[in-house]
Each structure stands twice: as structure tokens, then as C-alpha cells.
Predict the structure.
Amino acid sequence: MFGNIVAIYELGDTLKCYQERKASSIGIGRTEYMDAQGKITVTSSDQLLGGIRYSPSNYATVFPESISRNNRYIYGFDIYNGVMWRDSANGIFPISGRYADAGGDSDYKMATWFKDKSKDLLVSGIDHTDVMSVGTRNSRTCM
Amino acid sequence: MIFVDYDEELNSEVIVFHEPSNRWICFEDLDQTPPSHNVMVECDTYTILQGFEGGLGYSFDEDERFALFDIVTPSGFVTVNMDSISLAMTVNAPTVTGAGEASDMGIAESMTAYTPTVHISYTYFDIDSMGFVAAASDATYAQTALITSSEATATITAIPTSHFWVTEDLIHPLHLNDTVYNGHTLSIFLSTVTLHRMI
């Protein structure tokens, strides 16, 4: 529905699944129930994998090598949205520019650079393009 | 993040995100890790936790259930001291090739003017040294002169036209434009004249 599965990562008790146009989470050994008011309750299950919960955002990637895990974060690059995103237990958020969530506003001040880079790569053609990421332990950088 | 565009080099860049401070901190020089460098590099100042080998981003670990993405380090593991990297340079001897075309306005010429040589030949009869006796007026007696010339030959350009005829050793009689030779003898004869008595 959202393209091929690009990568699957385990993050705690959640299996992070990244398709070409959408990211989703699958509970490991637990399942979720939603009551009539829309409240979600998570319970343990004898099933290995629970239900699929899709991300409300459309951040994903077509570059498997762009996804890397560093500590409790998973990073990836979405060329169609022109953003670098980071996935965690709180959800998936862009880290290339400005965004707002319940915890407050953040601005990484690189929105234009990533959008221009995405546009240049799309014009050149992604069939001969590689986007890769790598994390380092000591300096805790991701490049 | 490493962007590699194999068709447009300007699109290839590396940008570094610092996780503790949540900031994009710098760009890196992609040329320092060329594609031909197919082994992972461990630097003195930090350790690479994850990477890619031969285009594969990760490997599946059955024991850790996705918990560990182990990138197998090749056997040719290389340690590089980032503070001391030596470079070798070879200075090639330059080759210079030049070409030119001469201007036709600047070609020097050399001329030598030789001194002209003028030869003048003549045969001179001195009238004072010539004379005919009465008995010699039968046209068999001639007054002679030796041809003296600075050249081997001379051309007759003037000759008496009345009462005389002239011969050379080889020419009888001599005419205008005839050629005479140095050392030959000219003979001038008195023609027969008719005398009239005056009454």
C-alpha cells in the first residue's frame, strides 16, 4: 500500500518498519486495543507481533542505506519530502528544519539545504544516487 | 548523511549531525573516503559503530533479533593516525613545445655590388705617320698598322669611305661591324684617283 519495505529495525519492544512512502510500528509480544472514545490500551499478548500502527506523517525513504540506528534513535532521509527524519519512541520527526510538537518548537535550521539537496538529486536521477548514514559511538554524531 | 551522485559530482556531500546537542555541525570532505577504499577505517580519535560494506547497509543477527546490526569488518582492517598522514608527491618535468612563423616583412637580404670593368678597344692611325708616295698610288701599296686591343677582338665601327679601302689579315676588304683580332695587321690602300689638269 505504501510501497516496498525498505528496512525493519527493532527499537525496544517495537518493530519499526519503513516502507517507501510510510513508516509504521509493530508491537513485539503485545497488542493494542482502542475503546469507543478512541483511547488506546496496550496489553501483553501471546502473539509474537501485534497490530500495525502507521505513523500520521508521511516521512519514509527509498534509500535503505540512509537508515541507521544510533543509541535510541533511527535516522533516515526522505528525498520526496526533502527532510532528514529521526524516529524514536515518541514518533518520527524531521530534524532538518523547524517542527512543533507537544514538547515545544525545534528548529534545526537546515530545511532549505535538505530541500535543495533533494531537488538536485531528483533532477539528476535517484537511480545513480546513494544516500548513506553512519553513526559514531564516542562523538555521538551521525553522518 | 552521505550523498553520492555518480553522475553529478556537485551533488555529492557529507553533512554531520551531533546527537547530544541536536545540531547539524559541519560538512565533511567526501574525497577523503574514496569508493575504492573498501575497508573500514578506525581512527585514533573515534570509533565507527555502523557502516556499509560493498553496498550492504546491515546484516541480520539471529541471536539479537534485530537488536544488533553487525557490520562485518573486512580482514584488511586499517588503522590511520589522523594527526600524521604522509603525502607523496612527484613533480613531473615540464615539457615545453614552441612553434613560430617568420614574418615576411623582416627577412634580411645581402647584396654585393661588383665594380664594373670597362674595356675600350680602338685602332688609331696617326695621320702624321702615314703617307703615300707617288709611286705607291697604284693600289698595290698599303700603309699598315698593328691592331692593339685590350680584348681579343674588336669591332669596326668607323672606316674611311672614299679614296681608301682597308683590309685585315683575314678580311678583304674590311666593312663596318666586321670583327678584327688583336695582333693582326690592318692595311689601308689608296684608291686610284683621276687627276685633272687645271687649265
